[in-house]
Amino acid sequence: MDAMATETFSSQMRGPVLTRMDAEYDTVRSLYNGMIDKSPKVIARCADVADVVTAVKFAHDNDLRVAIRAGGHNGPGLGSVDDGLMIDLSLMKGVRVDPAARTVRAGAGCTQGDVDHASHAYGLAVPAGIVSSTGIAGLTLGGGTGYLTRKYGLTIDNLLEADVVLADGRIVTASASENPDLYWGLRGGGGNFGIVTSFLFQAHPVNMVYAGPVFWDIKDAKRVMKTYRDFLPGAPEELGAFVGLKTVPPVDPFPAEHQGKRACAIIACYNGPTARGQAVMAELLSELPEPLFNWMGEMPFPALQSMFDPFFPKGMQWYWRGDFVKELSDQAIDAHVAQAQEVPSALCLMHLYPIDGAVRRIGKSETAWNTRDATWSMVIAGIDPNPQKAGEITRWTKVYWEAVHPYSAKGCYVNFMMEDGDDSRLQATYGDNYERLIALKAKYDPDNFFRINQNIRPMHA
Question: According to CATH, what is the number of the domain 3-88?
Fold first, then answer.
């Protein structure tokens, strides 16, 4: 590839094309996970679908490896590639809400916050994650879990259709009636089959919610986790609540007397009348000791979604490991609490997100996401702003994961994988759907053009 080819490519694009010589290059190429540094040969900042098609053709013509970046939140840095082409969708941010149909169409560059902002004006929300800076594209293609999951299912369970640019440059729509096999694969199969340029979601009535965090001292963690485990299956599906082992952030507005304490937290959201939410939480809290603080209250749903954004800005050091969990035994809880007390950084955490309710009402073979019989999706995340602590937080995460993995299922939510997403791990994750995914990959991307991802390889690759 020479300068003339790049110049010609740039002239064919509506969005900017950057190389290492451009002043904005370093800013644009930087990743959410500051632990990972990659240097693409070219960055194509796509303004529309035609730009995406042009970028795919350019990569083919110049034999470039391709990485797709949308919202840019990918933990293992799979939105970039050394010496290849980054196809950057972050400028494609349009959101259109149809309040009558209760649908939301979102461009691939949207964050969850973009979608929440647009849909909230109509008293609606799309079931998604818990951090507003998360890119809606990667979250959706991996599955998507959050506060609304128990009532309304995974994000993929609310995906009605997607516009996709395939490896050969064709533009297709994937839905229940058009290319239904591709539609099946996109719902949990990640970025293996094409570049999704827009998503059409089913939205649901969500406006003011009764929500927020409740923190207990780490000495009460075993009791909190056991009570949460036993309470949640019988709780109304309007209650979305996850449990975490973490540290009270050593900053305002957290109470000065508790800042820096190791803690167990339940972060909950009741989507319904506040009085009913208070009653449900009162039932749970009646079984537990007095918390360090209880910050639950009535708030707009987007306020909850963005509550933790200030603690996780772009550029932090991240290393995470995950598992699906079917049964949270007392022995597993003991292992969790022991590991959580040995943290190398105040931001390190473990979360268990519920996988039940509406998720279970869809068959394991109806979407690529297979583990609908899980009870939780677990993530252990080592996090710190200091690059010098990268090795320490990585070691802590791995040791913690190794201690609790014997109590877990074999697979893992693909959005919580790092470099551990090899063939055996993916096969365990997709179970009986894995062979069908390989066949789908062979149909839509036989040369494995889209391989900078948690890669499902066609049989001959």
Answer: 3.30.43.10
